[in-house]
Amino acid sequence: MDALYRLDRLRRLIDYRQVLDRTTARERCHEHIELLYLILSGKNEEASRYMARHLADLGRLKTVAREMRA
């Protein structure tokens, strides 16, 4: 369990070190708020689809950022 905790902390550190402009960060925050709204409204299926789309988009952004740094 401790190994997973350390691995997650390391992943977060790497993510935080990535340079993201404020516009992108603001968009992600708005997406998080929208996701919370869906969950609190009981729209679980819609929230699930939204989260899947959010994670896919974020994965693509991280891939592009890594490729740009390389």
Low-confidence stretches: none
Q: Give the overall shape.
A: globular
Q: What number is the mean pLDDT? A: 84
Order of helices and strands: HHH
Strands, count: 0
Biggest pleated sheet: none
**Given the structure, what is the number of helices?**
3
Structural category is mainly alpha
Percent range for β-strand residues: under 5%
* Helical fraction: over 70%
Radius of gyration from the CA trace? 14 Å
The oligomeric state is: single chain
> CA-to-CA gap between the ends?
32 Å
Quick overview:
The chain is built from 3 helices and no strands.
Features:
70 residues; mainly alpha
Draw up the topology in text:
Layout: H1 2-17, H2 22-40, H3 44-69
Walkthrough of the structure:
The chain is globular. With 70 residues, the chain is mostly helical. The protein has three helices and no strands.
